[in-house]
Amino acid sequence: MSSTAEDMMELHWLFDMLQHIDVGLVVLNEKYEIKLWNSFMENHSGMSSSIAKERSLFEVFPSINSEWLQRKLDNVIALRTPIFVSWEQRPHLFPFKSYRPITGIADKMYQNIALRPITNADGSVKYVCMVVYDVTDVAVSKESLSSANRKLDRLSKTDPLTQLQNRGSLDKTMGSAFHSFQIDHGSYSLVMGDIDFFKKINDQHGHPVGDLVLKNVSKLIASSIRSSDFVGRYGGEEFVILLPNTDADSALFFSEVLRRKVADAKIATGNTEISVTMSFGVSQLKRTDHSVSDWLNRADGALYKAKAEGRNQSILAR
């Protein structure tokens, strides 16, 4: 076989591989006009090479951010260096549908994009090759793992019954507030609340009703705080609310508003309704508090006093 025939065969092989390789190949000139559009691009875009070629990429895909991509294409030509765009930077460039059964949770194909300069025989660069990789499987697996880790992290901080923060998360947040206080000496207050006669509720109505009361009270507390506040279940029927940028008088006012809300609420328990009340102890963090325990114990002492003096009231620790 002559060398010319061998060269023609190699050229045929190369062309066949370019057409059937499982990545997208697009060649653009300096005007962003399509010069090559392989079968991967045809199959996923639904547009044949004969229709796509000689048209501007941004005419074929108007949804592409032209300013962003043009800047990258111009840099590839001017600097003669490739540029890589990860799916983590931009999930996809081309809005192709995902087609793999195992990644059915992905609506669109995740893509990595490589932009490479094409050097002519005279050394000039006037074309850019875009290589489009389908990385949907990798992306979905990574996002699923990240989602699972976020869920596990959330569960590790959440009380399963009330969906408030749990004791461990509460301790950590109070520790952070105490540390901040050592630096900025700002106003940080704690409100410790306890449902009055909760044991009697369990004894008279049963633990399922007791759980229902805890859930309803938790929702009421959660709906009463600011986005900067923090509420957690301290244990049993006790709750702790951390109020940053709040002095003692403001915290006492907050606890009284919350106390009245709880007292006015009606909790449906099957064919009847019940009402509950809460007692509160309030303490503002002071320089004489040497630890979180000192701060918390003052709030707990005020709560104990509120319950001892008749319940359904708020007491401020001095």
TrEMBL record:
The keyword Nucleotidyltransferase applies. InterPro entries: Diguanylate_Cyclase, GGDEF_dom, Nucleotide_cyclase, PAS, PAS-like_dom_sf, Rev_trsase/Diguanyl_cyclase. This is diguanylate cyclase. It comes from Marinomonas vulgaris. CDD domains: GGDEF, PAS. Pfam families: GGDEF (PF00990). It is an enzyme of class 2 (transferase). Keywords: Nucleotidyltransferase, Transferase. The keyword Nucleotidyltransferase applies. GO terms for molecular function: diguanylate cyclase activity. Residues 186-318 form the GGDEF domain. Its EC number is 2.7.7.65. It catalyses: 2 GTP = 3',3'-c-di-GMP + 2 diphosphate. NCBIfam families: GGDEF.
